[in-house]
Amino acid sequence: MTAELHTLVGAYALNALSAEEQARFEQHLATCAACRAEQSELQATAARLADANWETPPAGIKARLMDAVRRTAQDRPLGVSPTHTGRGRWLPVMLTAAAVLAIVASLGAFFVERDRLADAQQQQRAVAGRLAVLERQEDGVTAVLSAPDVRIRSASLDNGGSVRVIVAPSLNSALIAMDNLPILGDQYSYQIWQVGRGDPVSAVVMPADAKHRTGTQLLDNLGKTQAIAVTVEPEGGSTRPTTDPIASIALT
Amino acid sequence: MTEPTPLHGTGRSSSSRAPRARQAAVLDDLLGEVARGDEIAFSALYDKMSPAVFGLARRVVRDPARAEEVAQEVFLQVWQNATRFDSDRGAAKTWILTLAHRRAVDVVRRDQSSSDREQRYDWRSGPDHDAVAEEVGTRLEHEQVRRCLGTLTDLQREAITLAYYGGYTYMEASTLLEANAATVKTRMRDGLIRLRDCLGVTR
Ligand SMILES: [Zn+2]
Questions:
Q1: Distance from CA of A56 to the nearest CA of B (A)
Q2: A136 and A82 in a common domain
Q3: pTM metric for this prediction
Q4: How confident is the model at residue A204 (pLDDT cuts 50, 70, 90)?
Q5: How far apart are CA A207 and CA A237, in angstroms?
Q6: B53–A50 C-beta distance less than 8 A
Q7: What domains are there in chain B, each with its CATH number?
Q8: d(Cα B201, Cα B101) in Å, to the nearest integer?
Q9: What pLDDT is recorded for position A95?
Q10: How far apart are CA B201 and CA A233, in angstroms?
């Protein structure tokens, strides 16, 4: 039995075991110095196989990564299940990394808007007011992304757009990221609602600058909010929803 | 199936070992700085490792958009988990490429059925090697990998390439190769040992 386990070391280094065999072999590795030594050498050998396939990645990847890195805490296990994925010691939080990347694109809109408003800051007080809001939100955005209990809920729109809600219950906060929204005429706005027990409460009317295709909004007072809804309202928003939601996302 | 003629024997090559050791030390140092939160080191590490990571992802998952996702996820994981890297257990390059390989294989096993992969698998060709600007020393190493793959038996080479580039388990590979599973498992091991000796890998 043990002799048979030794022979798995090559397939292990090539990641060619079933999940069960891999788990069994890793248990064996912990107790077998000979296999550990061989595994270390064969793992390095397998890695050399990547050298036969170099390919320059598209330039956009690095820009997105550097942006993500600035907003991603290091070595901080996030609120994914503490059980191991069974794919080895080196892969504990892949899901979280993927989740963070999934929203970085949406966050781009947030920072683009902030930077653009910063350029135009002196032009008008209304713009300056919005900039102050965005700058205040930036810390909150970073906090939500690195919260230990962060989770993502999303809804697709009929036109292919999407609304994602990144919730951090421990911070009483959520980040709404809307992508590829239908374009509205000048006389309409998107409005986000917090839905709890009573009537929906307006969270924000998406500002004119952001209302066209993308928008990102931090909500920092979730309270007993059970769902986030998005409606199309007359320009400037309504005190209560006047249309059916284009998206409604439960937070639980 | 024709066996490429080895240019040299299977002996260890000493000519490229010194630059490789130096390069490996640079990568180890960079990853150490990344573990301390150094974004500039991360940027440099990305520049050095991204062609290998992206090339591997492309080879395994095929789809360019999926390969981009894999590369991004792997590097973000490198950033997040750099503090867990233990240089006593292996080189930074091995650590990163092992993450990349596991991630790519996870994606391909989730996305594609085995038969689907069989149809799509490109048995021989890799991307155009000349498309990437490489240092001369790096280039020699890459040629060494190809030469050493040529020193394996057909079954060793096919078992290893199906697993590494195709993302197949040894059980799946044995079906594709119409060979006994225990034999394929053993060929993966003795093939890697032969590769290790040919490449002069010490850890
Ligand atoms: Zn053993």
A1: 5
A2: no
A3: 0.59
A4: confident
A5: 10
A6: yes
A7: 10-199 (1.10.1740.10)
A8: 19
A9: 36
A10: 66
